[in-house]
């Protein structure tokens, strides 16, 4: 059987190339590997799962989806080789002084996977790394006490751990459009994805213009949407409590 592991791990699209950012990605939310195993790649996802841009559009193209599944299989089946491969690739000149976005889909789905990324970051001091994450409890335990100096992250509203967020945390919310961002007095990262971690706080992402996803979002931010869902669950639970 031919080896399906990608020769190069980090990729770029046209927008990221403009700002010297490279990208690593996994399948969004969960996926089934060729041998039948199902892996949850976003274990703390909340309402974001219902309006996830990485589960629509080009992400569903067969070649793109296959590449993301191959990435996940590599991480799960041969984590030491994957980690070494990533460290080795990051030694190339193109990554010196550049940035790597860890995930445009997927998240830090296990302690072991997050620990591997932290080792990779520490062995690549001339490269900046950043990430959006909903793994707040995991980051509280593993990252915040001693973060790699070249790692920046932003906690993303709309997940199961929203109640753990505080005003001191750097956070990002997904708004329906640029007009709603401006009206709320937040700061859009539309001009550069790096603004999510380097720009002013109260970071906002405008939702992707995907009609069915905008319809589900229904004019709310992800934070507002998640708050509504959590309130309904709490009310239902209280009604069924003895």
Automatic annotation (TrEMBL):
The source's superkingdom equals Bacteria
Gene product domain: residues covered = 18-232
Q: Which organism is it from?
A: Streptomyces chilikensis
Note the InterPro entries from the entry.
Gp88 (IPR020290)
Protein name, entry field: Gene product 88 domain-containing protein
